[in-house]
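Milestone 3.1: sequence recovery, worked example.
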């Protein structure tokens, strides 16, 4: 049960900005309550206590700015071009902070990889992490973002520019190509998105 010492009014604003509904407290000692993803945050004077089976996501939203996020991404296309999906996972030392997947418009595998990267970086920015360590199994995307490989296709070049703009919003960042086995959670989420339709 995480206890986060903080200004509870600022904490309330952070949760509201993230789209989390705030309710009045249940007792005279509780300032407010908020629920998300099976966890409940209860504000007292000078602290917020988080209860529930998965407090990590709420704790990440309440944490002051900064911190390190490990961001995994994967995109998939069946047909290349064809039906496409993306998956992403954000992990901290406390566990999985956020993850998701969705079907996207028909596209190529490389474009889907870029869309997954854009999504995970956007979510990491919403949590206000200071450092993003990005990992993906698309060597092409990783090397293009690093600037080691040219980006000749205009659609990929545009996505690369958007990725670099998001990365510039972090205090520090890195991007690495990893084997598919090291990216299995994001890969699995992208594939699950195909099955959800």
């Amino acid at each position: 049960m995480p206890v986060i010492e903080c200004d509870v009014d600022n904490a309330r604003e952070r949760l509201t900005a993230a789209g989390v509904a705030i309710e009045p407290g249940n007792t005279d000692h509780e300032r407010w309550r908020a629920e998300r993803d099976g966890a409940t945050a209860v504000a007292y004077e000078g602290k917020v206590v988080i209860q529930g089976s998965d407090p990590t996501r709420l704790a990440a939203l309440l944490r002051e700015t900064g911190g390190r996020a490990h961001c995994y991404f994967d995109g998939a296309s069946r047909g290349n071009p064809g039906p496409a999906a993306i998956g992403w996972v954000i992990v901290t030392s406390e566990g999985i902070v956020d993850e998701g997947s969705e079907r996207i418009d028909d596209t190529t595998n490389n474009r889907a990889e870029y869309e997954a990267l854009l999504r995970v970086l956007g979510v990491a920015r919403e949590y206000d992490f200071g450092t993003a360590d990005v990992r993906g199994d698309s060597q092409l995307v990783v090397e293009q973002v690093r600037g080691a490989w040219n980006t000749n296709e205009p659609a990929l070049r545009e996505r690369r520019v958007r990725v670099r703009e998001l990365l510039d919003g972090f205090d520090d960042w890195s991007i690495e190509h990893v084997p598919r086995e090291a990216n299995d959670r994001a890969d699995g989420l992208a594939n699950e998105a195909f099955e959800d339709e």
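The beta strands are 3-5, 22-24, 32-36, 39-44, 47-52, 68-77, 82-92, 95-107, 131-136, 172-177. Residues 36 and 58 are 7 Å apart (CA to CA).
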